[in-house]
Amino acid sequence: CRPETVDRPIRDGVTGPRVTKAVIAVDVGLAVNPRGLEAQMMGCLMDGIALTLTSSLHLRDGHFLEASWDNYFYTRQWNTPPELKVVVMPTSTGEPGGAGELGVAASMAAVACAYGRATGAMPTDFPINHGTLSFTPKPTVPPVPASPTDGLDHV
């Protein structure tokens, strides 16, 4: 929540608190594909960051203001922590386990707790930056089309 992180210029983006360092430790038994597991845990972290900070739809008069994926702020490159480490714990049983999306809830909780510690107030509404719109919403009412004519001159 330091000014150099919060007030960084981002074109068409939502600025605010940023995760700058993350360590994920995962124990799934025998990791059959350790590199794939690392990638999956990175994705879980990105999901947790998005759900905590920016990922939301804005509803006004029964219409979503986000007109495309360009306006929906899921995790983008500027949300990715510059320092990220995934530790795959060595197997203790020799049996393969599974990971699924186990890192999403844990990373969301960790980001929320870090935000609370940095600001002195625990967030109670998620995503934290939901009130921020960094785009101009498209019109939700279509224009009235011109009256149809048959091409004849009716005088």
Describe this protein's structure.
The protein is α+β, with helices and mostly antiparallel strands and 155 residues long. The protein has one domain (3-119): Aldehyde oxidase/xanthine dehydrogenase, molybdopterin binding domain (Aldehyde Oxidoreductase, domain 4), CATH 3.30.365. It has 3 helices and 4 strands. The strands form 2 sheets. The protein has a two-stranded parallel ribbon. Strands 2-3 form a two-stranded antiparallel ribbon. β2 (59-60) and β3 form a beta hairpin. The longest helix has 20 residues, at 34-53.
From the N-terminal CA to the C-terminal CA, the straight-line distance is: 71 Å
Give me the count of strands. 4
Instruction: Estimate the strand proportion.
Output: 5-15%
> What summary fits the major beta sheet?
2 strands, parallel
User: Mean pLDDT score, rounded?
Assistant: 83
Helix and strand layout, with pairings?
Blueprint: H1 3-6, E1 21-26, H2 34-53, E2 59-60, E3 63-64, E4 83-88, H3 102-119
Parallel strand pairs: 1-4
Antiparallel strand pairs: 2-3
